[in-house]
Amino acid sequence: MYFEKIAVQDGLSHNKVNCIIQDKRGFIWLGTDDGLNRYDGKNFVHFKKRYNDSTGISGNIITDLLEDAEGTLWIATADGGLSKYDYQLPAQQQFTQFKHIPTDPFSIPVNTVNTLVEDNQGFLWLGTSGHSVLRLNKKTGRFDNIAKSNRTVLDMCVDKNGLIWVGRQGGGIMKINPSNLSYMEDERYHDLYAKLPHAAVTALFNDKDSHIWFGSWDKVLYKQNGLTGREEMFQSVTPNSFQNDEILSFAEDKSGKLWMGGKDRGLHIYDKVNNRFYNYPHNPSKEGSVADNRINCIFIDNQGRVWLGTNRGVCINNPKKQQFVQTFLSSSPQSELTVYDFYEGENRNIWIGTSDGIFIINKDGTITQREIKYKGKNLAVTNFFKDDVGNFYLGTNYSLFKYNPLKNDISLLPNTEKDGVMNQIIDSRVVSVVKDRIEGRPVLITSPYGHFLAYYDLQKQRWVSRLDSMNIISKFNLKDNLIRKLYKTKNGVLWLATAKQGLGLWIPGSLPKVEFFNHDPNDPNSLSNNNVYDIAEDRDGNLWIGTYGGGLNYFNVGSKKFTHIPASNNLIEGVQLDRYGNVWMISNGHLNKYDPVRKSYTSYELPDLEKTGGVRGKVFIDSEGKLYVAGPGYFISFDPGTINESKWSPKVHFTGFQVFNKSFIHLLQKEKIRLNYNDNYFTMEFAAPYYSSESGVHYSYMLEGFHDNWIEAGERNYVSFSNLDGGDYVFKVRATNTPGVWPPEHASIKITIIPPFWKQLWFYLLCAFVLSFTIYFIYRYRINELLKRQAIRNKIAQDLHDNVGSTLSSISVYSQVAKIYHNQQKQTELYTALEKISDTSSEMISELNDTVWAINPRNDNMSVILQRMESLARPLLAARDIHFHFHYDDGLKHLNLEMTKRRNFYSVFKESINNCIKYSECKNVWVNVKYHSHRISMTIKDDGKGFELSKTSEGYKSSDVFGGGNGLKNMQLRAKEMKGVLRISSEPGKGTTIELNFPVTGFGDRSTI
Fold first, then answer.
1. What is the pTM of this model?
2. Which of 105, 348, 515, 929 has its CA 20 to 30 A from that of 174?
């Protein structure tokens, strides 16, 4: 049996492995003496106790592991009690610790937990050191001490009836009934010195047939027969019986074989069908044996691989590796044996040319060796060749010999001593021989590696080489001295595999020429690399080319075009096609296969890879279709038709999610991950547990909504994204163990990047609404302004119609009256009528002048208004001998008043001045205009006679002032139209004061400051 090894140098946290399980997702968990390890076939993730950290694992010495039905991992430790791990929780909440706290009576009573089992009711049972068996209620977190005792429990199992079997260190086996917590034990074992079997039980196991197996300190294997109830013993009696050992662990494979880990003698396997035991101890001289004779635990995963936990790491037995039969060859102790070539004899024996002669593998499996000597010196046999007439030739590190297999006798070809190349080849060997014709004569074309070509003329019985006067290098167009192989196809075409000049085509003629096919970086249909290692022909007559540096190439002989196989490894050595058309290759010590139909590429890791570097050189196929490859001192044979490839595709799981390097792993359990636009730098981690060494897992991913196609990531199991636009995405990842062939299944998770508010739909809608409202507001404002102007025009027209019409009517009436008075020769009345006509005309002219002035936009500025006010009042008051005192704030000059307010403001001022002139009998008039807090106030005061002011529900009123009260009422209406306030105060003999206050903050009022 062959075991691969994983140790600290491969990433394991500690070489002493105490327990192994596989969780529901497929990850392998390994408990060591220095932390817990999660393994996916390539990468390890370590979980270790950190000082004074309650968010991590509670201890580092992991003694047992158990996964319950909910997928929660329970971890028993020898230095920190019990831990619970739930990967679905946030990073800081994934671990829950159960440690003994002296001040807490409800805490776990002991920190040394050795083993775990779960009963049929879901309770967790703990075997401890110092407190026997404990039961944990996972819902309440409460521990119950069952069968209180200070004896150490080493292992437990549950039988077919649900009883818990407890193996103890002294005291034998105890059985507990979980339903009522009753227990049974053999009282004979209370005497620790009683000579009884299995007093200390080290391991317990319930097999598929309900037999209970247990190991013991007395190095005897015991079985409690589930059918008869009798106890059976297995001891060392014959070579095929149990080799006495203390069993520490058990496992049962699919075929029913019982695997047992011993303390001192390695691995034991019991074949129940044949009632035979096999023992596989550690053998330091044999690669692939178990790493240590102490096997602490055994686990068989869901693909049938057997994992052994030892004190020197993990050993893995892959049943698929047993498909390859490894055979070691004896060799002289002076040097390491090198295998160069294979040949099938007439009786189907396999001949192997090596650095120590010939080894013949007979049909019965026996091996015989033939030393090949020349002049007393052992030769290396590097190439076999048998021509069409039955002559057998051996290529060696000396020259090409004719060989008699019956006598095991060799002889140089005649006149070989006369050739400077082929007579004792310098630091080289014959690597390839073919028979052909040159100048019409039969020849043996030979490649003495490093010396171009040499050919032996069978008629002239002489060698022609690079040292011959014929100068075959230039005449044959030989550009490379390193010719690895001469390959003749079924139709007789000769091809050359060269190390520096690519693929050579031998063009026959009186003097043949070699045409080379090289790598051209500018031609995708050229050879991928000029270092050609091997050539093989398929059924269609096309070639498969193995290059050392450019991988595998397919050459269409008809079109002369090469196709590179991108999934192939770069360093291809030997190439061979099996009877199914698959291409088998050697690369990096591995055996690889390419299926041209499925376009799949598979790698097989063979035995002895770690110690010897794996297989090298050629791939040979015999007449039965069996393939042969070789490594140092051995060869491996296999039937390609029986090699079972795994049809199981690795299932991808998301294992980590980080935003700016901070873990948010719990978000992976949600249906959709939502991120803000400024949190859009994130890393997605994933893994596809796969533990076959044949081929690593390759990943490809796609962020739907960002990528259009799948992106191949190779073996990299993480990907980062940054600066994504807001929107909805779907991250998909898939995995394959066959590069180039992707399964339809993939893992996916939805991701939403929430865009900034200014890029969200509601903001666009809001902007559209605001813009629409603004446009509508401006539109309505313009309409209102037009309506307002129209109203002003209508009012002006109405005023003009009313005032001018009434005035003209009055003038017309007075004219008729004046005409009558003129006819009646009444001069006094005529003069009065004409005076009336004159006054009325003057008032009408003044009114029209004020109206025209008010509607002129050039008069909006307050400086113009103030000048007009002064130019109006000062001459009128001076004519009545009234002193005019006019004051205003300088800031008023920078204000503009819209037309309506300007007209009303001026009208109130004019009406007040006229009233002062007509009724007040004053000597002084004071006018003060101020601007404060976006309001204009105007105070007009006189020192006249004043009057009694009465207030009614209609406002201020006087029967003998302001034209019977109409003037006051008009001013109040104008103030109200300006949204202002008009106040009048007056007392007889103390004059009158008029105060007007109105705002100037409306859209019609503007400041030029």
1. 0.67
2. 105
